[in-house]
Amino acid sequence: MPDTFVSKFDSNIKPFLGLTFMSLFACSALMTGCKEKKEEEKTSKGPKGLVAEAYVVKQAPLSSIYQSSGNLLANESISVYPEVAGRITAIHFKEGGIVRKGDLLVSLNSSDIDAQIQKLRAQRKLQVTTKERQDQLLAISGISKQEYDNTVTQIASIDADIAYNQAQLRKLEIRASFDGIIGLRNVSVGAIVSSATLITTIQQIDPLKMDFLVPEQYKDIVKQNDQVHFTVTGNNDTMQGKIMAIQPQADVATHTITMRAIVPNSNHLLSPGTFTNVFITLNRKSEAITIPTQCIIPTTRDKQVAVVRKGKVDMVTVQTGERLEAKVEILQGLQAGDTILTTGIMQVKQDMPVKVKKITE
Question: CA nearest 91: which of 181, 211, 200?
Answer without folding.
Answer: 200
